[in-house]
Each structure stands twice: as C-alpha cells, then as structure tokens.
Specification:
11 helices
C-alpha cells in the first residue's frame, strides 16, 4: 500500500475527517479572532456580572480558583477593581460599547457554526445575537454562584456534574439559536456536550499550568503579564470551542467549509 493510499484511507476515518475539518475551518486564525474579541467582551462581562450579582472581584475569584500567591496574587488583585468601583463605573456609554463588542463576538461565533454545518446566514441575525448575549449574561449570573455554593458545601462531585450540565445547556442553546433553529436540537446535543467537555477539561488543566504562567508573567512584566496569561487562556478556550464544533459537525456527517470554498455550497447543504 502506497503512502497516497494510506493518506486517502486515513482521510475517510473519523480522526482524518476531524483533522481535515479543523484545517478547513482554520482553527488558529479563528481562535485568534474569537479570543481577541472575547478579551474585550467576555472579560468585562464577567467582571460586571461578578460585581453586580456576587459582589466579588474577578481578581479575588482568580486568586481563590488558581491558588495564587506572591507576585501573581498581588498583580491579579491589583489588575481588577473592587465590586464597588465596578458598580460606580457603570455607564450607558460603557454598556453600549460592551453590547456592540458582544454582537461582533456573536457574529464571529455564528460564522464558525455556519461553516461547520454548511449553512448560510439567515434573516433576523441581530435579534438572535442579542438573545445569545442575554443567554450568556444569564449563564454567568447562575453558573458561578451555583458552583460557589456547592463548593462551600463540599459537594465536589455535584459541583462537577452541575457545571458540566449548565455548560452543556449553554453550548446546546448557542448553535440552536444562532443557526435560527434550522437544525433539530437533538442533532446539536453532541456538539453541546463536546464543547462543555472540552472547555471543562481545559478548566481542569488550567488549575495546573495557569498559576505558574500568571506568577511568572507577573514577575517579568507586572500587571500586563496577567493580561498576557488571560489572552493565551482565552485563545486555548476558543480553540477548544471550535474543535468541539467541528467534531460535532463531523459526527453528524458534515464537512466544514473553509475560506476558499465556494460560498454557494452552503445553499445546497441539507438541514
């Protein structure tokens, strides 16, 4: 058997189709685009919901979650303002810019799902993206307090199960909404679960490598070093999301479209 035949045969397997899918969808470029937008949208949104709903600083939460100490803990706590300062800084203009950025993030995420499932954009996308933003705010407002409550009770297993279930719900609802309900929600269950699984696995891995990364960066670069660490984590998170989306589509028999594919191909793809 020749190398060409082996490559062709591997290309028809699930791993081969998955690798082809992430190459077609350009996971690195899209991961960079999503993570840059997430940095200017999701980070402020997390800070805002934490301050308003929980009355807790994101810096304090990161210190507790990652077990930071020394220069890493100091820089992280200094970088993020107290809940009272966050509430005092809320303005209509700031909320407007945040919503505008979130709409751009939702559009980029929507394009990932459209290309993975070979679909064209549908009408009414603005309202769907606004609905997604509201969903994310609701998720952040419910998920973190729930995890903290279960953790305080020492229910670690329940915390893991509930976190995975909530995350699966968010990542099942996200494509169902952004794709204008053109796919039955049952077909999106694998995508939702895989996305929750991939991002949860990244969260567990973060407990190991993020403390060192934050501490080293803070020692070398000061406050901006913490921001560098957060950007790299967001990039890994966005790549995990994109990888799960591609794998979910491949499992459903779809071949993601790349930037060089003919746009009209989406119009002829079955729902």
């Amino acid at each position: 058997m020749t190398i060409e035949e082996l490559i062709t045969r591997f290309g028809h397997t699930l791993p081969g189709r998955f690798i082809d899918g992430i190459l077609r969808i350009n996971i690195v470029e899209r991961g960079l685009a999503l993570s840059s937008k997430a940095f200017v949208v999701l980070l402020p949104l997390t800070i805002l919901t934490g301050a308003v709903v929980q009355g807790e600083s994101l810096g304090d939460e990161m210190v507790d979650r990652f077990g930071l100490s020394g220069s890493g803990a100091t820089a992280t706590e200094t970088l993020f303002e107290s809940p009272d300062a966050v509430k005092a800084g809320i303005s209509v203009l700031g909320i407007g810019f945040l919503v505008f950025g979130a709409m751009s993030l939702a559009r980029s995420l929507e394009r990932v799902y459209l290309d993975a499932w070979q679909l064209q954009a549908a009408e009414g996308s603005v309202l769907r993206r606004l609905g997604w933003i509201v969903s994310v705010v609701g998720f952040l407002s419910v998920a973190d307090p729930t995890r903290d409550a279960l953790d305080a009770l020492g229910l670690n297993v329940a915390e893991t199960v509930v976190s995975l279930a909530l995350s699966t719900g968010l990542w099942l609802w996200t494509p169902y909404l952004l794709l204008a309900q053109r796919l039955p929600w049952q077909r999106l269950v694998p995508t939702g679960f895989l996305t929750a699984l991939f991002t949860s696995a990244l969260g567990v891995a973060s407990l190991v490598y993020m403390p060192k990364v934050i501490t080293d960066n803070a020692a070398r670069y000061g406050l901006i070093g913490v921001a560098f660490a957060l950007v790299s984590w967001l990039f890994a998170y966005c790549c995990a999301v994109i990888g799960a989306v591609v794998l979910g589509a491949v499992l459903a028999g779809r071949t993601p479209l790349g930037d060089d594919d003919v746009p009209q191909a989406r119009a002829h793809a079955p729902a």
